[in-house]
Amino acid sequence: VVFTGGRTQTGTIKPEEGQRHAYSVLDCEPKREAILPSVLYIQKILRRRPFLIKSLENVMRRFLQSLELFEENERKKLAIFTALTFSQKLSGLPPETVFQPLLKDSLVAKGLVLLFITDFFKEYLVENSLDDLISLLKRGKMEDNLLEFLPTAKRSAE
Known about the structure:
By secondary structure, the chain is an all-alpha fold. It contains 7 helices and no strands. The chain has one domain. Helix 1 packs across helix 3 and helix 3 runs parallel beside helix 6. The protein is globular, with a radius of gyration of 15 Å.
């Protein structure tokens, strides 16, 4: 509900029936100031109900595995949201949950992962240092696999 303003169906397609919540991540502007309240809201909920962390992991994994279903604007919002969750040290969300679904071959080949991860890095580095980003990548077991985010045609040793 926080992401789309309502319940989602299989494949994260947003159904158009019923009322939608006005304050959702995908309906706001793709700016840090607009998305940060949603991250803080989720952080407060997780403090009170820590068992919801697993649900957040599953939703994040599902959204990131189906990046091609979202428009460019919505992918940018998801990247900003993801960066803010790690910037705010959202308790319990493991980085490998976020980074592993991005290595899906079809997403990498279309270049969607490269755009997503670029927006993620830009947003994360606004508040955090490069050392924080490197430690996040190490916790996500991705520090040596950054080339896998690039489409195979654009990969080189340089």
